[in-house]
Amino acid sequence: MKSKHQGFNQNSHLFPFSKLLARLPYWFLAIVLLATFIIWKVFSSESYAIIFKAVGKGVTTTIYVSLLAYLFSISLGLIFGLLSVSRLRIVREISTFYIEIVRGVPMLVILYYIAFVGAPELVRFLNWIGGPLIENGLIDKLSIRNINFVWRAILALTIGYSAFIAEIFRAGIESIGSGQMEASLALGMTRWQAMLFVILPQAIRTVLPPLGNEFVAMIKDSALVSALGVQDITQIGKVYSSSTFMFFETYNIVAYLYLLMTISLSLMVRALERFLEKAKR
Question: ∠138-139-144 over CA atoms, to 5°?
Fold first, then answer.
């Protein structure tokens, strides 16, 4: 009589992916089945195919807004993260004030504030700075129309996420032992040289997974820019569903596109975490 292990080994030869499937979590298998069903509906149903083609036009805008806002927020967040660990109390207080204020305001409110308050004030400030040049006809006076809603949305997401990313950088820097800084100073480095060339490179390895999670969150929160009329996935889906009354089909496609991006990024972040864990060993 064949044992169960022998039977499993024979089945493994017949189904080479059986071991891989056995290791996959059930939630992931369920998502794969759901994604397969949506793909089948897109190719088998004319209405789903039309909706997918229409809503898919917003993918480029969603990625464009999310990627630029993420890169800018990392740069701004790194600056405030470094200021948060400064030896000067006034610098730390200014950084903490910015971080706490921004983190305490909902992202949608920040979006509206930057779009309808911050952007006009920025235009007035730039016109004031360039007043002499404008009077002499060297440059044209700026108008609020020069800053379109896509860039207002990018600016709002940058400000909103920079506060959270600043806290990630601060925690990463503080996780490095104080002995690293003392050893660097003993070698003749300045504090900023030690921070840039010794502490920060080590901290970045620690904060990479949380930064990846922030990008996933950025992709999801980019749906808020539809409130400004930016033609992203959500806005196009909203317009299409309201004109065709095909709400169920349209928002199935909208949810599918967001899930496709966020789950792919989440799997990449998990792979990065495993790689960094192996590297530490």
Answer: 160
What domains appear along the chain, each with residue ranges and CATH number? Answer: 60-280 (1.10.3720.10)
Sequence letter at residue 117:
V
pLDDT digit string, tens, across residues 236-276: 999 999 998 999 989 999 998 999 899 888 888 888 888 87
CB 163 within 8 A of CB 103: yes
**Phi and psi torsions of 17, nearest 5°:** -100, 10
As a whole number of Å, the end-to-end CA separation of the chain is 45
Tell me the C-alpha distance between 223 and 234, whole Å: 6
Side-chain half-sphere of 67: how many Cα atoms within 13 Å?
A: 8
User: Please, what is the average pLDDT of the chain?
Assistant: 86
| Residue 138, token pair as written in the block | 């060297």
